[in-house]
Amino acid sequence: MMEKEIQLLVNKGEMLPLMEEFYTIQGEGFHKGTAAYFVRIGGCDVGCHWCDVKESWNAKLHPPTLTTKIVENAKKYSDTIVVTGGEPLTWDMTFLTSKLKAEGLQVHIETSGAYELTGQWDWICLSPKKMKLPTDEVYVKAHELKMIIYNKDDFRFAEEQAARVNDNCILYLQPEWSKRDKMIPQIVDYVMQNPKWKVSLQTHKYLNIP
Hints:
By secondary structure, this protein is α/β, with parallel strands linked by helices.
């Protein structure tokens, strides 16, 4: 296939820069502890300095893969598919989610919300970043708000973001992994004083699974 043809398919979401795909246990947020098939899409320019998958940032490192092939793989493993990145909304998710939904699958996304919300989602995990704030639409549609706590100022930022999401959105504070020993006690105290929040941990890392 010619490079121009590939780029055209990528622009339409019929090919996507696939970094990895794997079947595992959801480790974070509302669905933690449940089996899910993860599809990690390459490409992100939000640029969190503490990102634990920086190798996902450069989409050119991850070969454009036919979206229909991604769906074929995914449906073999689980009824729940989690699309993550990178920042998956860098790309048009309409084609991917329509194909997954046609297979009767539950489709979740983990996103910073920095780009237009495309696709049909059963669950939207919104994790805003200071460098590129979410769109208005994703605040309205988010099912859970997952705020990563790296330092004390992140509590302030978390409250700003919580003020923007819909009333049914579940609020989580999650320690950044490298700062967990320092931040977990502060998060616990904060949640006890502000019980609208819940604690989220990266339980998959404690379980030593992907």
